[in-house]
């Protein structure tokens, strides 16, 4: 194998900077301290009235100001904070001159209820609002600004301008695997030799009444509102759905040779990526786990490893009855009998499901697990599911020597992306 290249002759991809924001706090230090202490960031929703809603809790990020308050502005603010931490740690490029492209996972964007109501009021009608009346109401400068705000590419454009990334920024939304997909795209661009560095971000600030109602109609959310911190219970027999969360994470990815040449500190490597689509259903994953199994196998093979080389699995672990069973079966199918002794835990038990951001947030925690030699727990694991025989690192963090992590991201609509992180190149 050539120096600084993997077994397939591709440039090794190193991580030289990381940043994260979740309901547990801003920055790696606060988040890592909280998540290894088993502390939950899930709480009662206070930003809007929850009367009549079946689910009244979430892992909202309430300490980041966003004006006007809506998913795009909060997502942008959190992404900016995470990227500032990551780029600052990497010490790459000069201010506002990042030497690579931006790949950013953002939530699906549409105008939210407050803006819709204001637009309808501006149309000046008491009955049904026609399209022509909406167009007249949208003619003011105020609504022109809102139009830009709710364009899908706006967040990426603003982040690219702020950090001076090169080329056209790539916005993507592949459901709950989006954050992992952003990292995968950055890795693949570096492997192809198109760039020496990439900024990969996942961000999501979309806890609002409409999103809660939509997920509730899918019977996807936990309704165990009291106590809030006890609702997310991945792999437990009494799990009843996921809890929405918010957050952002950013990773600076670099060609290993480029990073060494400039004297960067290497935080770890993205050694393998696996992706498999699933046309089984728009919201459900295939119950036999075939696409998830394929994605896991592809990620491990892409890393030049075997299942026996994996030390820990950062689970997708949403706490829905269907996902946790499917993930358990999929991991067991790949790992075989060894699965019973491979630790697997879910960060979502503490921060909720950060949706579009999840794959990136959990990538940061996976790399911190390697660096710190400490595996975050799956909290609220008090009623084991006899059908899921996994070592879920129950309730308390565990010290362990971890060199290779598999991180799973399985999204609605069958979007499956898995990543392998390592401490050292193979």
Automatic annotation (TrEMBL):
Residues 10-423 form the Ketosynthase family 3 (KS3) domain. It is an enzyme of class 2 (transferase). This is Beta-ketoacyl-ACP synthase. GO terms for molecular function: 3-oxoacyl-[acyl-carrier-protein] synthase activity. Belongs to the thiolase-like superfamily. Beta-ketoacyl-ACP synthases family. Pathway: Lipid metabolism; fatty acid biosynthesis. The keyword Acyltransferase applies. CDD domains: KAS_I_II. PROSITE patterns: KS3_1, KS3_2. It comes from Chelatococcus albus. InterPro entries: Beta-ketoacyl_synthase, Ketoacyl_synth_AS, Ketoacyl_synth_C, Ketoacyl_synth_N, PKS_Beta-ketoAc_synthase_dom, Thiolase-like. The keyword Protease does not apply.
């Amino acid at each position: 194998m050539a120096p600084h290249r993997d077994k397939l002759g591709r440039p090794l991809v190193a991580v030289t900077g990381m940043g994260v924001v979740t309901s547990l706090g801003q920055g790696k230090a606060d988040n890592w301290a909280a998540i290894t202490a088993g502390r939950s960031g899930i709480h009662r929703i206070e930003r809007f009235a929850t009367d009549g809603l079946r689910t009244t809790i979430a892992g909202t990020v309430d300490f980041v100001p966003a004006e006007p308050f809506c998913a795009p502005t909060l997502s942008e603010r959190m992404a900016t904070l995470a990227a500032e931490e990551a780029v600052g740690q990497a010490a790459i490029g000069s201010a506002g001159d990042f030497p690579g492209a931006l790949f950013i996972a953002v939530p699906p964007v549409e105008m939210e209820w407050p803006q819709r109501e204001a637009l309808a009021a501006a149309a000046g009608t008491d009955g049904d609002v026609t399209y022509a009346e909406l167009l007249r109401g949208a003619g003011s400068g105020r609504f022109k600004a809102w139009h830009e705000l709710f364009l899908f590419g706006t967040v990426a454009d603003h982040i690219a301008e702020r950090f001076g990334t090169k080329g056209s920024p790539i916005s993507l939304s592949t459901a709950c695997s989006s954050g992992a997909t952003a990292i995968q795209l950055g890795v693949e661009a570096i492997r192809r030799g198109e760039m020496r560095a990439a900024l990969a971000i996942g961000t999501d600030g979309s806890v609002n009444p409409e999103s809660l109602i939509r997920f509730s109609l899918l019977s996807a959310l936990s309704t165990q509102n009291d106590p809030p911190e006890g609702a997310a219970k991945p792999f437990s027999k009494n799990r009843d759905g996921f809890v929405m969360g918010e957050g952002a994470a950013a990773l600076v990815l670099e060609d290993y040779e480029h990073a060494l040449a400039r004297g960067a500190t290497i935080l770890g490597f993205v050694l393998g990526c696996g992706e498999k689509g699933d046309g089984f259903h728009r919201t459900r994953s295939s119950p036999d786990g075939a696409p998830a199994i394929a994605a896991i196998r592809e990620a491990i093979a892409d890393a030049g490893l075997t299942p026996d080389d994996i030390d820990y699995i950062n689970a997708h672990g949403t706490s829905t009855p269907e996902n946790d069973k499917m993930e358990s079966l999929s991991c067991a199918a790949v790992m075989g009998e060894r699965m019973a002794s491979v630790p697997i835990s879910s960060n979502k038990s503490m921060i909720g499901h950060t949706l579009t951001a999840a794959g990136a947030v959990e990538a940061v925690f996976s790399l911190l697990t390697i660096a710190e030699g400490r595996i975050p727990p799956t909290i609220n694991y008090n009623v084991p599911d006899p059908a899921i025989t996994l070592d879920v690192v129950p309730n308390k963090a565990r010290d362990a020597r971890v060199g290779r992590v598999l991180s799973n991201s399985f999204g609605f609509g069958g979007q499956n992306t898995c990543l392998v992180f390592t401490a050292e190149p193979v």
